[in-house]
């Protein structure tokens, strides 16, 4: 019977790896560089070699390992096929089959943000809920939808692209995805900075933000210090995200909503700004939803990747 | 081995019943009145008696019947428990258990709109797709989300409430659900009428709609006759629905979108107005989606209810 499982989270510069027991305890974690040269052809062999080394180091036999779960930065369908990962130099191929051939263990793969959502469900801020929206507020806005304990992958692996729901008809600048008016443009770290810079230009209110560095962190620090202009920015942020999450909740009827990513370090104050708009505009059947902050930080991906494998056991 | 299955669609005034073979052919259909008096306590016994009569009439043995599927107008969770159906006088109880005790066959239950979506996937406009958004434009806007061939029920049975996603911050009138700015307020039959009446007041354009009866049908008839004012109304309708569907598609990444309900009788012209906004604002990973009209009409519910049972076999 399986006793251990590996979880792997492939990023643009480093690959995070975790060694877990099947109860979900993280026993060891480490990183290797992501070698994106030669169309990223070294990445999976490097991962396989690193896992092999760890197995030898731990002096365990492969028979008691459930397999290797992988999160990758691109759309991954339910068969484990990635449909392009620009950051890694990857085209379209089966992560599952390719890695299984070198690592000689069962492999499961998913989109990194979706897999991280699964991690938060399993051992993080969403523990105890099987129906979950996880939204990750970082440089961009990512996310994952968990339905009945499973990741909503979608027809081509593009499920849970929460950051790109359309929330503003009047936006003139383009989002990274090419569209205009995406949630990400107003609620990512970059989006919050943008909102603050716009507000500083159009308002003549005094503010601790004037003349200083404008980041999501300085904005929410100013909010905590009751800076009025910063609070107006937070209000706009909360309106976009609260209304956006309300629309998503009408569709998926979650039990809980988990907020993660770098911006979530601001803490509970985020939820204070999001929740009133959520509750105002969500369908009554989804009104009593638990809001929580993510707790696994950058480890969410390796947890979720490990869980992907255990779910198929 | 099972050869037949019953599908039941409970409405506020009539209950529709269908008798199918397991391949999904509708062999017989009929209706009985919905007796909502005495807190709707006669409804399930009436259904059981009607099915019993049909079994005798067809001279078949209960052993070759897979069971009875039921769609009901309220949130039904994945255990078959309905959480209030105001139209029927029902509180919270298990449709599954209650009906199984009188009908002595396996029973499955779901929300009527969700179940109708499953019907369209199985034998209607969504045939061949396992990941589907079905939106029903009737008096209100209902819908269902199909993920990997299964209905997205949600934590408390309120999944797929597409009509209540928030699409307009500036709406001052309330939706039937109590919120303001729901998709239903602009894209249901009533919503289209509302848009047209507003447009007639604010525009001084000549129109065949002036002085006549304003309904979704007369509006789209005028659109087909190239009436400019009606075309402006259709444009607004298309913007709300296209953008709304784009947001939903970012979340669920469907293979196809099926448009049903009374309004869909207007035909392909609806899709002509919806699709440009959808494609403009959807995440690129969900751009190449098939749009189709629903084909089962009022029978979608009994088809989907039958399918609910067959899926558990």
Topology (SSEs and partners):
Two copies of one chain form a homodimer.
Chain A: E1 4-10, E2 14-21, E3 26-33, H1 37-40, H2 43-58, E4 65-72, E5 81-85, E6 90-94, H3 95-103, E7 107-111, H4 112-123, E8 132-137, E9 141-147, E10 150-151, H5 184-187, H6 189-202, H7 216-224, H8 228-252, E11 256-260, H9 269-281, E12 290-293, H10 300-310
Parallel strand pairs in A: 1-4, 4-7, 8-11, 11-12
Antiparallel strand pairs in A: 1-2, 2-3, 5-6, 8-9, 9-10
Structure description:
The structure is a homodimer of 313-residue chains. Chain A is an alpha/beta fold. Chain A has 2 domains: 4-119 and 299-310, ATPase, nucleotide binding domain (Nucleotidyltransferase, domain 5), CATH 3.30.420.40; 128-294, Nucleotidyltransferase, domain 5, CATH 3.30.420. The first copy, chain A, has 10 helices and 12 strands. Chain A has helices at 37-40, 43-58, 95-103, 112-123, 184-187, 189-202, 216-224, 228-252, 269-281, 300-310, and strands spanning 4-10, 14-21, 26-33, 65-72, 81-85, 90-94, 107-111, 132-137, 141-147, 150-151, 256-260, 290-293. The first copy, chain A, has a 5-stranded mixed beta sheet with strand order 3-2-1-4-7. In chain A, helix 7 (216-224) crosses helix 8 (228-252) and helix 8 (228-252) packs across helix 9. The mean pLDDT of chain A is 95. Chains A and B meet through helix 8 of A and helix 8 of B.
Question: Any idea of the CATH class of the largest domain in chain A?
Answer: Alpha Beta
Give the tally of β-strands of chain A.
12
Number of helices of chain A: 10
Q: How many separate structural domains of chain A?
A: 2
Rg of chain A, nearest Å: 20 Å
N-to-C series of helices and strands of chain A: EEEHHEEEHEHEEEHHHHEHEH
The average pLDDT of chain A is 95
Q: Beta-strand percentage of chain A?
A: 15-25%
Distance between the termini of chain A: 10 Å
Quaternary form: homodimer
Using CB atoms under 8 Å apart, which protein chain pair has the greatest interface? A-B, 46 and 47 residues
Strands of the widest sheet of chain A, in order across it, are 3-2-1-4-7
The profile of the biggest β sheet of chain A is: 5 strands, mixed
């Amino acid at each position: 019977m399986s006793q251990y499982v590996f979880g792997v989270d492939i990023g643009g510069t480093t690959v995070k790896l975790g060694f877990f027991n099947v109860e979900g305890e993280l026993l060891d974690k480490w990183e290797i560089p992501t070698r994106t040269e030669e169309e990223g052809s070294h990445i999976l062999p490097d991962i396989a070699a690193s896992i092999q080394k760890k197995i030898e180091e731990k002096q365990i036999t492969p028979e008691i390992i459930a397999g290797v779960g992988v999160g990758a930065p691109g759309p991954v369908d339910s068969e484990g096929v990635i449909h392009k990962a620009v950051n890694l130099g990857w085209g379209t191929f089966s992560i599952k089959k390719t890695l299984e051939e070198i690592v000689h263990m069962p492999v499961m793969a998913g989109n990194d943000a979706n897999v991280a959502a699964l991690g938060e469900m399993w051992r993080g801020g969403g523990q105890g809920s099987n129906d979950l929206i996880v939204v990750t507020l970082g440089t961009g806005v990512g996310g994952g939808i968990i339905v009945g304990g499973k990741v909503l992958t979608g027809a081509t692996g593009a499920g849970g692209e929460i950051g790109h729901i359309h929330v503003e008809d009047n936006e003139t600048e383009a989002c990274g995805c090419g569209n205009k008016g995406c949630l990400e443009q107003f609620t990512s770290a970059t989006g919050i900075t943008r909102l603050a810079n716009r507000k500083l230009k159009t308002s003549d209110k005094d503010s601790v933000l004037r003349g200083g560095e404008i980041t999501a962190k300085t904005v929410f620090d100013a909010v905590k210090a009751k800076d009025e202009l910063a609070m107006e920015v937070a209000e706009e942020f909360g309106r976009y995200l609260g209304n956006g999450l309300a629309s998503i909740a009408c569709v998926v009827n979650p039990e809980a909503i988990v907020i993660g990513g770098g911006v979530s370090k601001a803490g509970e104050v985020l939820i204070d700004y999001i929740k009133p708009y959520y509750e105002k505009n969500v369908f009554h059947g989804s009104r009593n939803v638990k809001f929580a902050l993510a707790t696994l930080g950058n480890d969410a991906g390796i947890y979720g990747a490990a869980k992907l494998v255990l779910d198929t056991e």
